[in-house]
Design a protein that fits this description.
heterodimer, A: about 210 residues, mainly alpha, Four Helix Bundle (Hemerythrin (Met), subunit A), 7 helices, about 0% strand, B: about 600 residues, two-stranded antiparallel ribbon, globular, binds protoporphyrin IX containing FE, binds copper (II) ion, transmembrane (chain A), Cyt_c/ubiquinol_Oxase_su3 (chain A), Ubiquinol_oxase_su3_dom (chain A), Cyt_c_oxidase-like_su3 (chain A), cytochrome-c oxidase activity (chain A)
Chain lengths: ~210, ~600
C-alpha cells in the first residue's frame, strides 16, 4: 500500500492502480456486491414485465408497437460503448491518460446517442400510438423496465462525465483509478441488462 | 454537531440505538392502544379507521424502524471489534445508511400529522392499498418512507459484507470468526438479495398510486397477486434478516456464561447458511389461500418444513453448550436462556402453519399473530435484550444494574407469554386478525382481557429497562475491558468504551475464540500482528446527512405532486416537480462534492497513542 502511494507520487503507477490500495480493493469488491443487488432489482422488473406483457387492455400490443430497426440501432450504439469503455480501461492500465480520457468521452457520447434514440422512441409511442404509462398493465411494465434502464444510462453518463473532469484535474492516481474502473463495471452491467431487454422485451414482443 | 457529522462506527451504533429505541417506543405505544381497544367486546375506544392505521403503523414501525436499527446498532458496535478492525470498510457509507434510514422513518411517521397514516396493513396488499380503497396519502408515506429507509439498509448490508470479507485481523480465517460476525455476514447477504425486490415492489405501487399505472389494477390488466409474490419474496427472507442476528447474539452469550466453547461451531455455520438459502425458497407459504393450486402449495409446504432441520440443529447446539458448563445466569444469559424455549414454541407453530391444509384454518386468525410474535418478540426481541445487556459495558463503559436487569427479564417474559400464549387459542376459536372489535359471548372476552394485561406488563418491563439505563448513565464509566471476566472474543481485549481507533495494534488471531485461547495459554493480552504505527482515520462530514435530507425532500415533493393546494405558490412548486427537483439537486450536489473533494483523512501518531 505504501509502495503504491510512493509510486503514484513518482508518477509511475502500478499496473492495476485500481487495486493498489485497500480502499481501492474494497471499492471494487463492494461494487461487485452492489451489482448483485442490481441484478435482483432488474430480475424483479423482468419478472413483472413477463407476467404482464400480454395484458394490453385493448391498447397497442408489443407487435403493433415496436420498430425493430430503431431498437437495433440503439442496441448497436450501446454495445459499442461497452467496447470503448474496455479500451478506456486498457489505456488506464498502460498509464495513457489522454487516451483514457478520449475513450471515456467516446463512451459517454455513445451513451448520449442511445438515450436520445430512446427518448425519441418513447415520444413516438406516446404521441402517435397513444401508448402511455396509464394505457395498460403492459404499458406500465414496459415503461418501468425500459425507463429504469434508461435512468441507469443517464446516471452513468453523468457519473463518467464527472470522472472525466476529475481525471483532468487530478490526473490518474490510486484514488481516481478505482472510481474509473468501477464506473466501467457499471457501464458493462447496464449493457448486459440491455441485451436482456432487447431479447425479452423487443424480440419476444415481435415474435413471441 | 459532532453526532451529525460522525463516521465512527461506534457512534453510529449509538445513533442507531437511539433512533431505533424511539421508534420502538412509538410502535410499543401503538401496540398498547390496539390492545386497549381489544380489551373487551364492542369497545368504542378507537374507531375502525384509526385501528387500521394503528395496526399498519405498529407492524411497519416495529419491523422496519424498531428492531432492524437496533440490530444494526449491535452490528455496528460489535462487528469491527470482533474481527479486529479499526472501522467498517466504508465509514462514509455507514453514516449515509443511518441517515437515510432515519429520514425514511421520519417521513413514514409524519403521516400521523399530515392527513392520515397508512391503513392497509404492514403487507399493503393490493387492491386494499390502491387509491380506490385507501384514498389518503397514507400508503404513499408507506411506499416512499420505506423506500428511503430501505436504501439505508441496503447500504449497510453491502458495507458489512465488504468489511467482513476484507478487514478481518491476520489469522482470522472464516472458520475462526465469531458466530455473531457469521450471522451478520449471512444477514447482510440476505439483505443484498432481498431488499432490491421490495424496492421494485414499492416503486410499482407508488407508480400505481401516483402516476395511475396499472400493475395491480385489474381493470387495466394488472394483477394483485403479483404484489403478494414480490412482497413475500422479500418478506420471508426479511424474517431471517431479523432472526439470524439474534441467533448470533445467543451464540455469543451462551458460551461466555457457560465457560465452554460453542458446541458444534461448524454445524452452526452450516445451519446458518442453509437457513438463509431455504429462506428464499419458501415465500409462497404466505399465499396458500390465494389459490396457487395444490402442486405449488405442496412444494412450498415441504420446503418450509425443511427449515426446521437447521433450526433444530441450532437449538440443540445451544443446549449442548450449556450442558455440563459452569453456567452463570447473568441478565444477558437469562434472556438467552429464555430465548430458547420461547423461540422453539414459535418454530413449532410455524411448522403447523406450513401445512397448507391446516393453514386454510389458521390463516388471518390470531393464531398467526401469536406465531409471529413468538418468533419476533420471543425470539428476536429477547435476543436483542440479551445482546444489549451483554455489550452495554463495551458500548458505554458502564455495567447495567443486574438487579434491575433481572426485573426487566421476569416482567417482560411473563408479560410476553400472557399476551401471546392465549392468542393461539383465540385464533383456534376463530377470532380474526385485523378486525377492530368482536361480539360478546363468543368466549373471546376473558382471553382478550388476559392478553391486554400481559401487554401492559411488558410495558412495565420496558420501563424498568429504561430506568436501568437512566440510573446507569449517571454512574461513573468504570467498566473493565473484560467486565464479564469470561469474554472469549476480541472486543473484550480493548478498553470499554474503545478508543476511536479501536486497536492500537491489530491483534494476531490464533484460533476460534481468540481471546479465550490466549487466556488458556496463560497470556493476559493478545499478541499484536504489527508494530505501533501511525493510524489513518476518516474525517467527519456533513454530506451523508445532507444527501438524506435531499432524498427526504424529493420524496415529499413527489408524493404531493398531484395534489391541489389552496395556495397557488404551493401548487406551482409541487405540481411542477420543483420541490422534487430541489431535493434531488441537494442529494446529487452532495454526491458531486463527495466525488470532487477526496477525503485525505487524518492520522493519529504513535506518540499520541502512547499518551492515552
Ligand atoms: C411488545 C409488545 C407487542 C404487542 C402487545 C403487540 C401487539 C400486536 C397486536 C395486538 C397486533 C394486531 C393484530 C391484528 O389485529 O392483526 C399486532 C400486529 C403486528 N405486530 Fe405486534 N405487538 C408487539 C410487538 C411487536 C414487535 C416487536 C413486532 C416486530 C418486530 C411486531 C410485529 C407485528 C406485526 C408485523 C403485526 C401485523 C400488523 C398487520 O397485521 O399489518 N409486534 N401486534
Ligand atoms: Cu414466511
Amino acid at each position: 500500500m505504501t509502495t503504491a502511494h510512493a509510486e503514484a507520487a513518482n508518477g509511475t503507477l502500478p499496473h492495476e492502480p485500481e487495486k493498489a490500495t485497500l480502499e481501492g480493493r474494497n471499492k471494487v469488491l463492494a461494487f461487485w456486491l452492489f451489482l448483485g443487488g442490481e441484478a435482483v432489482l432488474f430480475g424483479t422488473l423482468f419478472a413483472t414485465f413477463l407476467a404482464l406483457r400480454n395484458q394490453t387492455n385493448e391498447g397497442p400490443s408489443a407487435n403493433e408497437l415496436f420498430h425493430l430497426p430503431l431498437v437495433a440501432a440503439a442496441t448497436f450504439l450501446l454495445l459499442v460503448s461497452s467496447l470503448t469503455s474496455v479500451f478506456a480501461i486498457q489505456a488506464m492500465h498502460r498509464g495513457r491518460v489522454t487516451m483514457l480520457r478520449n475513450w471515456l468521452l467516446v463512451t459517454v457520447l455513445l451513451g448520449l446517442c442511445f438515450l436520445v434514440l430512446e427518448i425519441y422512441e418513447f415520444s413516438v409511442y406516446i404521441r402517435h400510438e397513444e401508448f402511455g404509462m396509464t394505457t395498460s398493465a403492459f404499458s406500465s411494465a414496459f415503461y418501468t423496465l425500459v425507463g429504469f434502464h434508461g435512468a441507469h444510462v443517464a446516471f452513468g453518463i453523468l457519473w463518467i462525465s464527472v470522472l472525466i473532469g476529475q481525471l483532468m484535474h487530478k490526473g490518474l492516481t490510486v484514488v481516481t483509478a478505482p472510481k474509473i474502473y468501477v464506473s466501467a463495471m457499471y457501464w458493462h452491467f447496464i449493457d448486459v441488462v440491455w441485451v436482456f431487454i432487447f431479447t425479452v422485451v423487443y424480440l419476444l414482443g415481435k415474435v413471441g | 454537531m459532532d453526532w451529525i457529522t460522525t463516521v465512527d462506527h461506534k457512534k453510529i451504533a449509538i445513533l442507531y440505538l437511539w433512533a431505533g429505541g424511539i421508534f420502538f417506543g412509538i410502535g410499543g405505544l401503538e401496540a398498547i392502544l390496539i390492545r386497549i381497544q381489544l380489551i373487551k367486546p364492542m369497545n368504542t375506544f378507537l374507531d375502525a379507521q384509526t385501528f387500521n392505521e394503528l395496526i399498519t403503523m405498529h407492524g411497519t414501525t416495529m419491523i422496519f424502524l424498531g428492531v432492524m436499527p437496533v440490530i444494526f446498532a449491535l452490528m455496528n458496535a460489535v462487528i469491527p471489534l470482533q474481527i479486529g478492525a479499526r472501522d467498517v470498510a466504508f465509514p462514509f457509507l455507514n453514516a449515509l445508511g443511518f441517515w437515510t434510514f432515519l429520514f425514511g422513518g421520519i417521513l413514514l411517521n409524519l403521516s400521523w400529522v399530515m392527513g392520515g397514516a397508512p391503513d392497509a396493513g404492514w403487507t399493503s396488499y393490493t387492491p386494499l392499498s390502491s387509491t380506490g380503497y385507501s384514498p389518503t396519502h397514507g400508503v404513499d408515506f408507506y411506499t416512499i418512507g420505506l423506500q428511503i429507509a430501505g436504501l439505508g439498509t441496503l447500504i449497510g448490508g453491502i458495507n458489512f459484507l465488504a468489511t467482513i470479507i476484507t478487514m478481518r485481523a491476520p489469522g482470522m480465517s472464516f472458520m475462526r470468526m465469531p458466530m455473531f460476525a457469521w450471522t451478520t455476514f449471512i444477514t447482510s447477504a440476505i439483505i443484498l438479495f432481498a431488499f432490491p425486490a421490495i424496492t421494485v415492489g414499492l416503486v410499482l405501487l407508488t407508480f400505481d398510486r401516483i402516476l395511475d399505472a396499472n400493475f395491480f389494477n385489474v381493470a387495466g390488466g394488472g394483477n394483485p397477486v403479483l404484489w403478494q409474490h414480490i412482497f413475500w419474496i422479500f418478506g420471508h427472507p426479511e424474517v431471517y434478516i431479523l432472526i439470524l442476528p439474534a441467533f448470533g447474539v445467543i451464540s455469543e452469550v451462551i458460551p461466555t456464561f457457560s465457560r465452554k466453547r460453542l458446541f458444534g461451531y461448524s454445524s452452526m455455520v452450516f445451519a446458518t447458511i442453509l437457513i438463509a438459502f431455504l429462506g428464499f425458497m419458501v415465500w409462497a407459504h404466505h399465499m396458500f389461500t390465494t389459490g396457487l393450486g395444490p402442486v405449488a402449495n405442496a412444494l412450498f409446504s415441504v420446503s418450509t418444513m425443511l427449515i426446521a432441520v437447521p433450526t433444530g440443529i441450532k437449538i440443540f447446539n445451544w443446549l449442548f453448550t450449556m450442558w455440563g458448563g459452569q453456567v452463570r445466569f447473568t441478565t444477558p444469559n437469562l434472556f438467552a436462556a429464555g430465548f430458547i424455549p420461547t423461540f422453539t414454541m414459535g418454530g413449532v407453530t410455524g411448522v403447523m402453519l406450513a401445512s397448507a391444509p391446516a393453514d386454510f384454518q389458521f390463516h388471518d386468525t390470531y393464531f398467526v399473530v401469536a406465531h409471529f410474535h413468538y418468533v419476533i418478540v420471543g425470539g428476536l426481541v429477547l435476543g436483542l435484550f440479551a445482546g444489549l445487556h451483554y455489550w452495554w459495558p463495551k458500548m458505554f463503559g458502564r455495567m447495567l444494574s443486574e438487579k434491575l436487569g433481572k426485573w426487566t427479564f421476569w416482567t417482560f417474559i411473563i408479560g410476553f407469554h400472557l399476551t401471546f400464549f392465549v392468542q393461539h387459542f383465540l385464533g383456534l376459536m376463530g377470532m380474526q386478525r385485523r378486525v377492530f372489535t368482536y361480539l360478546p359471548n363468543q368466549q373471546f372476552d376473558l382471553l382478550n382481557l388476559v392478553s391486554t394485561i400481559g401487554a401492559m406488563l411488558m410495558g412495565v418491563g420496558m420501563m424498568i429497562f429504561l430506568t436501568n439505563i437512566f440510573l446507569t448513565s449517571r454512574r461513573p464509566a468504570d467498566a473493565a475491558d473484560d467486565p464479564w471476566e469470561d469474554g472469549r472474543t476480541l472486543e473484550w481485549t480493548i478498553p470499554s468504551p474503545p478508543p476511536e481507533y479501536n486497536f492500537k495494534q491489530t491483534p494476531l488471531v490464533r484460533g476460534l475464540d481468540a481471546f479465550w485461547k490466549e487466556k488458556m495459554a496463560g497470556h493476559k493480552a493478545m499478541t499484536p500482528s504489527e508494530p505501533v504505527g501511525s493510524i489513518h482515520m476518516p474525517s467527519a462530514t456533513i454530506l451523508p446527512f445532507l444527501m438524506s435530507v435531499g432524498i427526504f425532500i424529493a420524496g415529499l415533493g413527489f408524493m404531493f405532486s398531484r395534489d391541489e393546494f389552496s395556495s397557488s405558490v404551493m401548487s406551482f412548486l409541487f405540481n411542477n416537480y420543483i420541490v422534487t427537483a430541489l431535493g434531488l439537486l441537494i442529494t446529487f450536489g452532495s454526491m458531486l462534492m463527495r466525488s470532487l473533494f477526496d477525503d485525505p483523512g487524518w492520522h493519529i501518531e504513535p506518540e499520541e497513542l502512547e499518551g492515552r
